[in-house]
Design goal:
heterodimer, A: alpha+beta, Muramoyl-pentapeptide Carboxypeptidase, domain 2, B: alpha+beta, Alpha-Beta Plaits, two-stranded antiparallel ribbon, elongated, binds iron/sulfur cluster
Amino acid sequence: METRSQRVALQDAMVFLGAIASGTEQAIGESANRISYLAGVNLGKRLSEGVPTTGDIEKALDATREVLLRNDYLWLFEAFKTHDQQATFQESEEGTQVMLVFRDCMIRQSLFRFGHAQKGSLCNMMYGFFAGALQNIMGRESSLEIVHAGENACYKKLVVRRAS
Amino acid sequence: MSLEIAVHEPSCRGCELCIDVCPTKVFELDAEQRLCVVKHAEDCIACLSCAYICPSTAISHSGYHAVKNFYRDAEFCEKMGKFL
Ligand code: SF4
Ligand code: SF4
């Protein structure tokens, strides 16, 4: 019974959040993305407090995944390489780049409930989360660009900028 | 089971919508036959956008992870309760 009531509460809360985010985007435009991004940064920093620092992006991503798992956040991701890419982690002028696939995502599923668009402010929260966590773990700035928001998975480009 | 993707050729109209939507360029157009073919199945991330967009429902996948619809999954809900 408790699970059922929890489920109903969760469903309502997430759908409500999706509706609020969608409405806020319409009302205040771009600023909605910024607000969600900053909320994500705070969450990423708070949850990764005390995680050992590393300069190795692969280890930093493992640590970020651990942080998500430890907190029961089902926002898991994996690094992905297409057949024509030389390596999973690629160096460019911007920094180190890696493509990530996100599968189970509570944000995507709650947006779909009433047909809200993806790539909006709630999706930016994820970008913020990575930026915050990687800032703590690697001491470097990063960006997480949504290349494709799909029905069953999303494809994103993570760039961890060079240390200045 | 590993991911498999198939195009039902008799259904394909060669509209190229799947080619346009695919983020990892899995498909290619066979211009002679006016239908799309799977060129790099290993690059598929199972986003399913091609299957959703295809007007002929010609594309099918198997062996992929279907995402959890959290408000219908009791175990998932229990975990997300902590977040909320
Ligand atoms: S979207 Fe469907 S009909 Fe159009 S080219 Fe692709 S498989 Fe063929
Ligand atoms: S499921 Fe996504 S990645 Fe795979 S072929 Fe279709 S559009 Fe491309």
